[in-house]
Amino acid sequence: MARHSKHNTASGHFTYAEYQMLKDRWGSRKLRLTVESMRAFYACCLCLQDAQRPVCCAQGHVFCKECILSDLVTQKTQLAEHSKRRAELAQRQSEQEAEAASRAEKRRIAAFEEASNALPHEAAKRKRDDDPADDASKHARTDATTQGAANPAFWLPNMAPEVEADALQELAKDDRPSTTLCIAGSEKPHKLTMKGLVPVHFGTRTVDTQTQHYCPSCKKELPLTAQVHVMRKCGHVLCASCTKELVHVPLARHDEGVACPECSERVRKREDVIAIVREGTGFASGGRSETEAKGITFQG
């Protein structure tokens, strides 16, 4: 048997080993995420590091104060440029419409003067079934054809006559001309302003020269993927069990004097308690424990 017959190229079909060699470049891939691959509940959603001077939005996304303020300022700058461009396009379109109306008016006046100065026998032979609207549209088509013929680069997409109209329609459809958004929830961004940020105070302590996060009510250590809640009024963070027993259950019974266990700040309604968003849990069905990348299957 020749040596080349033992190589992969000698076979008429793909083997399992060859498919394994190509699986990193072709097809869809799935990967089970572990705790080390998930963002901790006290980490910033933008820089993914431990939040410095942490704040959160109304839906529980945690940020560094510097990171979120920088992002909001950037969004405001982009929105200002967007509004300016939309105003320029609207003004340009109105000028073009006014110019077209002026040209149509001049043509109507010229046609009227020409008909008034014509000889009687010529006026008698002239047909009266011409529609001024059809004449204006005919002139508009003629002007567009002449402008297209005079344009040396008529094949470019940005030279098409409907580009500005389409761009103006797209800008008009935008329903957030002056609204900054929280982009941490990429699936469904929501409105976020600087006034809507809630300061967060995580309970920390030092154990064996390492910083440990804990619940200030029950003093238990909080794991990286713990389900925690922050009190909107004071910013203290409690674990799920303490929040349920000390806040949610008394609120459901309409008890008076429901307060934060740490500082006794009054809690009046369930909206005063914000659930911090977490990446996942230690269970396969909890959170986003699996990631998937779709690709084209190798057609070998």
UniProtKB/TrEMBL annotation:
Gene3D superfamilies the record matches: Zinc/RING finger domain, C3HC4 (zinc finger)
Q: Which SMART domains match?
A: RING (SM00184)
Q: Metal-binding among the record's keywords?
A: yes
Provide a Gene Ontology MF annotation, just one: zinc ion binding
Renumbered residue ranges of the record's region Disordered: 86-105, 113-153
| PROSITE patterns, per the entry | ZF_RING_2
Q: Where in the numbering of this chain does the RING-type domain appear?
A: 215-264
Q: Which UniProt keywords apply?
A: Metal-binding, Zinc, Zinc-finger
The entry's protein name is: RING-type domain-containing protein
